Amino acid sequence: xxxxxxxxxxxxxxxxxxxxxxxxxxxxxxxxxxxxxxxxxxxxxxxxxxxxxxxxxxxxxxxxxxxxxxxxxxxxxxxxxxxxxxxxxxxxxxxxxxxxxxxxxxxxxxxxxxxxxxxxxxxxxxxxxxxxxxxxxxxxxxxxxxxxxxxxxxxxxxxxxxxxxxxxxxxxxxxxxxxxxxxxxxxxxxxxxxxxxxxxxxxxxxxxxxxxxxxxxxxxxxxxxxxxxxxxxxxxxxxxxxxxxxxxxxxxxxxxxxxxxxxxxxxxxxxxxxxxxxxxxxxxxxxxxxxxxxxxxxxxxxxxxxxxxxxxxxxxxxxxxxxxxxxxxxxxxxxxxxxxxxxxxxxxxxxxxxxxxxxxxxxxxxxxxxxxxxxxxxxxxxxxxxxxxxxxxxxxxxxxxxxxxxxxxxxxxxxxxxxxxxxxxxxxxxxxxxxxxxxxxxx
Length: 443
Ligand code: ACO
Prior knowledge:
single chain; 443 residues; mainly alpha; globular; binds acetyl coenzyme *A
C-alpha cells in the first residue's frame, strides 16, 4: 500500500527527510524546519505571498470546490439553502454547525431580534459623520465603537460571552448599516420593528418614510434574504482571514469584526460589484460589447465580475443571483444594464480567451444590477455584503478561538533588506537628500 508520506532529498547535504502527508494532500510547513544544512541553521521555510497555496486552519464551516463550482455551508449545498431556507436559519447553521429544530429556531430568532436596538450614543456618533461619509466607513467605525459598550466581550474564552456577542453583532449590524444609509440621505433614523423578518426589518429601517405601518415588498424581501444567504460565508477569503488574524491577538470580537469589515471595504473584495456597474455604464449599450471584449483580450481592460481565485467554473452563487435579478426586475422594472451584462456573458463564454483561462461570471457580475434596481446606491453594496457575512466571521472567529492548534497569527518573512549599517550624523551623510523622494520610494 502507498505510504502517506513525502520524501525530500536535500541536495545541499544529501540527507533525506520523510514528511507525513495528512488529509490526503497536506504537509505541515513546520516539518520543513527540520531540513537544515547545520545544527544552527534556521531550517527551510515556505514562501507563499498572499497565501495562494497555504492552509491557515482546519475548518468545518464552508466547503468550496472551485473546479466543479461547488459551495456548501456545513455540508449543505448553497443551491438548496438558497431555495428552501432563510438567512437567519442559515446564520444559525453557520454559527452552530447544525440546522435548528423549531424550538431552537424560535429561540434564535427571538435572541437576534432582542439585540437589534443600538445604544443611543452610537446614534450620536453616526450624527457626527459628514453628510457625504461613505456608509462602509461609518459601519467600520461604529462596529469598532461597540466594543466600548460591551467590555465583557473581551472574555473570548467564555462560551456564553461568545454566544451573546454573536447574537448582538448579527442583530445590530443591520441597524448600524441602515442608520449609515439614512445619514447619507439626511433622513431620520428608523428604529427596528421586530414583528418583521430579519430582512424585512432591515428594509423598513432603510426605506420607511411616513407610513404608519411599513410593509416591505415580499418579493424584494425574499430576494434580499437569498442574497444574504449567498454572502454568509466563503471560507478563508480576505475578510475572514482578517477576522481570524486580528482575533488571534485575543482582542474582543467587535474590534475583530471592525477589521474584517475594513477588509471587505476594499475594491478587490466587497467593492467588485460597484466596479461591474461602472464598467456596464461605461460600455453603455450591448452594441459596444464586442469592442469592449476586444480591449479586454488585448489586455487593456478587465472584464469585471469575471474570474475568481478559487472558482475555475461558473460561480454557483452567480447562477442564483441571475435568477433573483429577474424576480426583482418584475417588481422594480428592468435595469437596462442587464442587457449589457447578458451580452457580455454570452460573448465571453464562447470566446477562447475566457474559456481557456476558465473565466466565468462570479457572484458580483449580477449583484450590482440587482441592488441597483432595488434602489441601493453603489456605496451600500459592500455594506449589504457585510451584514450577512457577520455570521460567517463570527463562526470563523469562534472556530479559531476553540482550536488548540491556533496561536497568534504571525507569518515569517524573507528579509531582503540591508545588513548591519553604522549610523552617521546628519551633516556627514552624502548629498543629495533634499527631496524626500530622492531617498525612498516606499512611502
Ligand atoms: N478579465 C480579463 N482577464 C482576466 C480576468 C478578467 N476579469 N480575470 C483574470 N483574467 C486573466 C488574467 O489576465 C490572466 O491572464 P494571463 O494568464 O494571460 O496573464 C489569467 O486570466 C489569470 O488571472 P489572474 O489575475 O492570475 O487570476 P487571479 O486568481 O489572481 O485573480 C480575480 C482573480 C482578482 C478575481 C480576477 O479574476 C479579476 O480581477 N476579476 C475581476 C474583478 C472581480 O470580478 N473581482 C470579484 C471577485 S469575487 C469576490 O471577491 C466576491
